[in-house]
Specification:
heterodimer; A: alpha/beta; Rossmann fold; five-stranded parallel sheet; 5 strands; B: alpha+beta; six-stranded antiparallel sheet; 11 helices; 16 strands; about 55% helix; transcription (chain A); DNA-binding (chain A)
Chain lengths: ~130, ~575
């Protein structure tokens, strides 16, 4: 079963996403900010991370930068940034920092699920290649 | 600076004065030199004139001496006539020799001796004195008769035809007669014209005397053109004089006169004009000096005025430059402020967009969930989703309301409607709503120290506490305890709201109530930056105040003070 970590400071949004993902057959983890998210990643090693940008304590960009600099072993975990910030600067910053994709709020669950499916396909391909090697 | 200029001017004037003095002295010196030259020249002229005068007087004297002889000769050429008459008529000789010689030649005395040396005729000062006594002094004159006789005898003895003819024989002397200088001249008078040399020793002899101190002086004076000429025994030193020397070498007296000094006379004549000229020259020099001084004074004044003007100009330029600089700085400041406001507004737009999108996302997601889970929908599930949607809508309404309120406050369109209300009641309802939305936090409140009612505008006061409470919750995500404390003092109600949240840096505190400003510690936390500005404006409109204390990482306390008797009348008016 694929485990998805959902990091968002808005409890309602977090809950709605988790509900949708659960219905779609994913195992889910929740975190309220970047700091909690990092701890969850290190503890549970999720397959995919869905992450908000504007959050207290540690925001999405900071979390990505932290992983890029200090936790290189986590870098192959796909990050899908999901934010209410729609400006190009934030999109570019996120993608350059290694995010697999950038989705904007309001959330289109079909789109989100499609993105997750794409990520999973790539992951499974990678794992198959890894086993073959 | 100004004193230097005064000193400079004084120096100028002093120099000008010196120039005037030097010019005056030079003029005086020139005049004195000219006068000296003139004096020397006149003395020289006078000396030459005196020499010439002496020459004339000497010549005149000589003429007078010689004239006697010539005159006697001119009388005695009438030899025949004289002698003929002399034989027959004695008085006629007297008339011819005596009277004529006296009248026409001014001979003072005349004596005629015959061949026996007997005095046949004598005249003294025009008087016939033949019969009178022959004076002693007259004997001196008569002595010349002896000289003539000696010469005649000598001629006869020689018998030489080359010897002088009778007409050439004469004797002449200058001597003193009766104490007076006189020319005495003697000639032989032949008895017959045809017996010139036959009757030697038979000649008559005539002796003539002319005093040099009488009419002769006048003649010399006329000749020499010296009016003051006179004879004097002793010549005074001050007067010019030539001596009258007797034949025997003794000095008989002097021909003296007041010397004529043409140079001195010239100086005397031109002296007044000269003095006048000097005075005029000095006057001109002094006048010019005064003019120069005045001009210098004027120039100095002008230059001082010019310097003052220049100073004033410099001063005004400096002031204008300072003013322009000040205006430039003011413009720079305003521009910087404008840029800052623009940046804050851009930030606000981004923030507002984010803030609206978040509740929209909740609404949208909840709606999607409701539509996607048709199969196993329970009434509780639908209830939960609709609650989420409503909360999100409420959040959007609050957000919109606060933005609109801020806009209204900014444009001054807010009207307070003060009414009697219970502050405790309002705070209670705000807390209830907040805890309904955010179940994670607990609000500990002590509202017992508030008055029963205060006079305030309900809507805006609700906004104040909603904002402050939502802030306390929002900025203290890890600290669930919020404390509200109240007190009343001096007619004011105090409400302080304390959280133990992230707090903020002391540097952020002064700017905290500016529109769109957000403390740096608020990064990543949803917010528009208009809430606290709105709160402060509302509290200010009520005549109250708001203060903040905060320690980074330890929490923040806001304290609102509101007047119990409501906003002051003028504040209501201002808001209206």
């Amino acid at each position: 079963m694929i485990t998805v970590l959902c990091i968002d400071d808005e409890a309602d949004i977090r809950q709605l996403i988790v509900e949708e993902l659960t219905d779609a057959g994913f195992a889910t983890l929740e975190a309220a900010n970047g700091q909690e998210g990092l701890e969850a990643i290190l503890s549970y090693w999720p397959d995919i991370v869905i992450c908000d940008i504007s959050m207290p304590v540690m925001d999405g960009h900071q979390l990505l930068a932290e992983i890029q600099m200090n936790h290189a072993e986590l870098f192959n975990i796909p990050f899908i940034l999901l934010s209410a910030l729609t400006d190009k600067d934030n999109v570019l910053t996120g993608l350059r920092a290694g995010a697999a994709d950038y989705l904007t709020k309001p959330i289109d669950f079909d789109l989100l699920l499609a993105k997750l499916a794409g990520c999973i396909a790539r992951l499974e391909n990678d794992r198959a290649v890894g086993r073959a090697l | 600076m100004r004193r230097e200029k005064a000193v400079h001017m004084q120096q100028n004037i002093r120099i000008t004065s010196h120039v005037t003095i030097v010019l005056t002295l030079l003029t005086a010196l020139t005049v004195m030199l000219l006068a000296g030259f003139m004096w020397l020249a006149s003395a020289k002229v006078d000396d030459l004139a005196l020499i010439r005068q002496k020459g004339y007087v000497e010549q005149g004297l000589d003429e007078q001496v010689k004239a006697v002889q010539h005159e006697l000769e001119s009388v005695t050429v009438w030899n025949d006539a004289v002698l003929l008459v002399a034989k027959d008529d004695h008085p006629w000789i007297a008339d011819n020799i005596g009277t004529w010689m006296h009248k026409y030649f001014s001979h003072d005395r005349t004596y005629l001796f015959n061949e026996r040396d007997e005095l046949v005729f004598a005249m003294r000062d025009g008087e016939d004195i033949t019969a009178l006594t022959f004076l002693d002094d007259e004997r001196a004159a008569a002595a010349l008769r002896e000289d003539i006789r000696a010469m005649l005898h000598k001629r006869i003895a020689v018998g030489d035809s080359n010897s002088p003819v009778l007409a050439e024989i004469f004797a002449e002397k200058i001597l003193s007669i009766a104490g007076r200088p006189a020319v005495v001249s003697a000639r032989p008078v032949v008895p017959s014209s045809d017996q010139v040399s036959l009757d030697a020793g038979k000649e008559f002899i005539v002796v003539a005397v002319r005093f040099l101190d009488a009419s002769a002086v006048e003649k010399i004076a006329r000749y020499a053109r010296i009016e003051t000429l006179h004879f004097t025994a002793d010549a005074a030193e001050s007067t010019a004089a030539i001596p009258v020397i007797a034949t025997d070498g003794s000095t008989l007296g002097y021909m003296a006169w007041q010397p004529i000094r043409p140079g001195l006379m010239l100086i005397e004549q031109i002296a007044p004009v000269g003095f006048a000229g000097i005075i005029v020259a000095m006057g001109v020099v002094i006048f010019l000096g005064r003019g120069l001084r005045k001009t210098t004074l004027d120039l100095s004044e002008s230059r001082l005025a010019l310097m003052r003007h220049r100073d004033q100009l410099e001063e005004s330029v400096r002031l204008r430059t300072a003013e322009i600089e000040r205006q430039r700085e003011e413009l720079d400041r305003l521009l910087a402020q404008e840029r800052h406001v623009n940046a804050l507004q851009r930030q606000f737009v981004t923030m507002a967009s984010h803030e609206f999108r978040t509740p929209l996302a909740i609404i949208d997601a909840a709606a999607q969930r409701l539509s996607r889970t048709k199969t196993n929908q329970t009434p509780e599930y639908v209830e939960e989703k609709s609650a989420q949607i409503r909360a999100a809508v409420l959040r959007m309404v609050d957000l919109m309301e606060s933005i609109l309120s801020a806009g209204r406050l900014e444009t001054g369109k807010t009207t307070l409607k003060p009414e009697r209300l219970s502050l405790a009641e309002i705070i209670e309802s705000c807390c209830a709503r907040q805890m309904d939305v955010r179940k994670s936090h607990r609000i500990h409140r002590d509202l017992s120290h508030l008055p029963q009612t205060i006079l305030a505008d309900r809507t805006t006061i609700e906004q104040v506490f909603t904002n402050l409470l939502s802030n306390a919750v929002k900025y203290a995500p890890q600290a669930p305890d919020i404390h509200i404390r109240t007190s009343t003092k001096n007619g004011m109600s105090y409400v302080s709201i304390q959280d133990a949240g992230i707090g903020m840096d002391a540097e952020d505190l002064p700017k905290l109530f500016q529109p769109y400003y957000r403390a740096r510690s608020a990064t990543g936390i949803a917010g528009t930056g208009i809430g606290l500005n709105l709160v402060k404006q509302i509290v200010d409109l009520h005549g109250g105040s708001i203060s903040v204390e905060s320690v980074l990482g330890r929490g923040t306390t806001f304290t609102v003070a509101l007047p119990n008797k409501g906003p002051l009348a003028n504040l209501i008016k201002r808001a209206a």
